[in-house]
Amino acid sequence: MIRLNPEQQTAVNCDGNIVITACPGSGKTRVLTARVIRGLSELESSKERVVALTFTNRAADEIQVRLDQENVDTNCLWAGTIHAFALEWVLRPYAPYSEITRCGFTVADEFHTERLLDELKKEEGLPGYTEISTTFTRTGSGFNADDTCRAIFDRYKTKLWEAKYIDYDDVLYLAYSMLLENPEIATTLSAIIRLACVDEVQDIQDLQFGILSAIFKAGISPPSLFFVGDADQSIYESLGALTKTPREIAAEFGLNSIVHLELKGNYRSTQRIIDFYRCLRFAVQAIESRTEY
């Protein structure tokens, strides 16, 4: 069994919906893995699933490796990024529900999308370094303030969809739209998923929150939520990451409150290094070095 310190064990044993604020080096992946193991052991049917959502495929692989080391049966576990979850659980099985995906689709890679954007910027006489946001809000509008950039955004999406391509931003928006427009999909998923563990919650985008909350709120007996992250470690705000407080997360999922716990022990650095770090990040929580040197 995975060895845990008292505060880590408390986090894993806690029932209900949880937000863990985990300082750097506090063993959050270890805690997340232990919570996954507990969730798998509590499933009542082979049709139920535990879902572990990570920011990168590498993080998902790390969880899988740790589970293999513990000889845990992972047949009822799905682990991957939220983009992959939206693709595999919503877009592909329910593609006929959207005009954009019902006749088939391919997810365009970064080379394809950048080349198309460069062509459109050149046609409009804009320099290649001009930033064009390809993301959507929950209402389906874009984030481009400039009229020319908005026009390029519209043309980009039209050309992409006409060629039966979607980009990674479309994956999130189309999945979110399907869940809202077809509540039975969200209800089905909510009945299957018994526990959703989410890593690096500070780097989740608004549409990603929307997808998860749509599924959660659709269920008669919704899945348990287990979020792990730290606002001080957010590095993707420029890419649309939305750092929410525990209270804001509770509101997003329609909860009156959510349990908030902290992991304060750092197993990577000496106290001297930690104190220096705290001088640079004034809002950081108290962190204790638990190294052996």
Q: Would you spell out the secondary-structure blueprint of this structure?
A:
Layout: H1 6-13, E1 18-22, H2 28-41, E2 49-54, H3 57-69, E3 77-81, H4 82-91, E4 106-107, H5 110-123, H6 147-162, E5 165-166, H7 168-181, H8 183-192, E6 193-198, H9 206-218, E7 224-229, H10 246-252, E8 259-263, E9 265-266, H11 271-280, E10 288-289
Parallel strand pairs: 1-7, 1-8, 2-3, 2-6, 4-5, 6-7, 9-10
Helix pairs in contact: 1-2, 2-3, 4-7, 5-6, 7-8, 7-9, 8-9
Short descriptors:
globular; 293 residues; 11 helices; six-stranded parallel β-sheet; two-stranded parallel sheet; 14% strand; alpha/beta; 44% helix
Q: Could you explain the architecture of this structure?
A:
This protein has 293 residues and is an alpha/beta fold. Helix content is 44%, strand content 14%. The strands form 3 sheets. The chain has a 6-stranded parallel beta sheet with strand order 3-2-6-7-1-8. Strand 6, helix 9 (206-218) and strand 7 (224-229) form a beta-alpha-beta unit. The longest helix is centred in the middle third of the chain and has 16 residues, at 147-162. The chain starts with 5 loop residues before the first helix and ends with a strand. The mean pLDDT is 90.
Please give a quick description of this structure.
This protein is α/β, with parallel strands linked by helices and 293 residues long. Helix content is 44%, strand content 14%.
